[in-house]
Each structure stands twice: as C-alpha cells, then as structure tokens.
Amino acid sequence: MPLLALLLLLLVAAAGCTSAPPAPAPPPPPPRTAAPPKPIAPAQEEKEKVQVPHSASGRYAVVRGGAPARPGRGRVMRYLVEVERGLPFDPAEFAAEVHRTLNDVRGWGRFQRVDHGPVRVRVALSSPRLTIRQCLPLRTGGELSCWNGRRSVINALRWAEGVPQYGGDLAAYRRYLISHEVGHGLGHHHRSCPGPGRPAPVMVQQSKSLGRCRPNPWPFPHRRPDGR
After folding, report:
1. Would 198 be classed as within a structural domain?
2. 62 CB-near residues (< 8 Å, 6+ apart)
3. What is the residue-wise DSSP string for 30-49?
4. Residue 195: inside a domain, yes or no?
5. How many domains does the chain have?
6. What are phi and psi of 119, to 5 degrees?
7. Is residue 52 in a domain?
8. Residues 6+ apart with CB under 8 A from 158
9. How far is 108 from 124, CA to CA, in rounded Å?
C-alpha cells in the first residue's frame, strides 16, 4: 500500500477512537413545592397544664411592690402576697390576680397591696406539702386550702387544676379560693347551701361540694361588675 494511503487510513482510525459523544443532559428536576404549613399549636393551655410539685422549698417570698385599693368609701385593708419559692407560677401574675379579685366591687371591700407589715391578711400560694403543714391541725390532705390565723393558705394544686364542680371555669374557681380564704381572715365562717339552684354563698366549702347550689366566687354576687 502506498505510504500516503497508509497514513490517511491511520488518521481516520485515530479520529474514530476519540471520546464518545457527550451524553444527553439529564432532565431538569421536578419543580419544588412548598411544604404544607405546620399546624399552629393551640394556645398552650393553652400552654400545657402546669405540673405542681407536691413539695417546693418550704419558704415564702413576699411579692415586692404594691397596688392601691379601688376607689370608693369604706376602710382600706392592707394585705400582702407571698409565694413559696420553687413553685411554677409567676409571683407578679399571682399577686395581680389576687388584687383584681379582692378589689372587685363584688368582693369583700377595698384592699391595698403592700410588701411589708403591718397587714390584715397574708395571701400565700403554697405547695400541697407546705399547705398540709401550714393548716395543721386542720387536715387538708394536700387537696384543700385554709386560713391558719395569719395566712390565707392557697393550695397551688387547686390553683392550677380547679375542681370538677366549677365545670372547667378555672378563673372563677380561683376567685372563689381567694374570696373564701380571705373571708376567713375577715372573720367570716362556713355556711351551707340555702336551696337548690341558688348561688352558693362564698363561705360554702365549694372545693368539697356545692350541695345543690350553683358555683359562685363572690361575697356579693348581686353587685354588677361596673359597681352599679
């Protein structure tokens, strides 16, 4: 074979041994869709239920600060609020709720919150164990609250959970607790249900039973909240 023809044949063969033609480009990825929004958690109930320990520190701390009595006539009673250290409640929020209850026109009267003595009443949020100790010789079983001669001892378990006879209305039950135990501090004694379907007097032991009465958290429920 002539040399020139041989060279041409080799060049054609070498050209055929180059890299294979490029593979076709992969198809584009499918379009991304936005993930569905996460459901909004219910207002924690509305945060999760507060878990109240049976015992905390066993020592009270006075909630600092104060608040004036509501306008009106009549004697102003000084009181202070205490919260046992180690309880899962905000002391300032507890104190504010106590003050709103005591100064409602349906309540016992006009109360000024202070953070030092002398005071007529101390309102003390307490673990079940401290409640048992503070309330002796009364037997609370770690379930009830009491007046011990110096303090309205509010059981934190009842404050957190309420009682079935209030039908889930925890705010109303808390008002009852404050009104009832402070009522003892003002010299009021237990009463009984006056008749089926009637509002229970606030000094009925509503945490135990309503008898056949309806729940009522106020000493003077006939007064309108606007004072009229």
Report:
1. no
2. 80, 81, 82, 115, 116
3. PPP-PPPPPPPPP-BTBSPP
4. no
5. 1
6. -135, 155
7. no
8. 143, 144, 145, 173, 177, 207
9. 18
Residue 214's SS3 state is strand
**Which amino acid makes up residue 152?**
S
> Residue 113 CA to chain centroid, in angstroms?
22
Identify residue 58 by its one-letter amino acid code. Answer: G
Residue given tokens 């037997």 in the structure block: 139
Q: What is the pTM of this model?
A: 0.78
Amino acid at 64: R
pLDDT at 130 over 70: yes
Q: 49 is written with which tokens? A: 């239920």
Query: 136 vs 123, 139, 145, CA distance in Å?
Result: 17, 6, 11
Whether 219 is covered by a domain: the verdict is no
Give the Å distances, CA to CA, from 55 to 51, 83, 127, 159, 167.
12, 13, 5, 15, 27
The CATH number covering residue 136 comes to: 3.40.390
Total number of residues shown for the chain: 228
158-206 pLDDT tens trace: 999 999 999 999 999 999 999 999 999 999 999 999 999 999 999 999 9
Range of the domain at 147: 60-185
Cα 2 to the chain's mean position, in Å? Answer: 104
Round to whole Å and give the CA distance between 110 and 117. Answer: 17
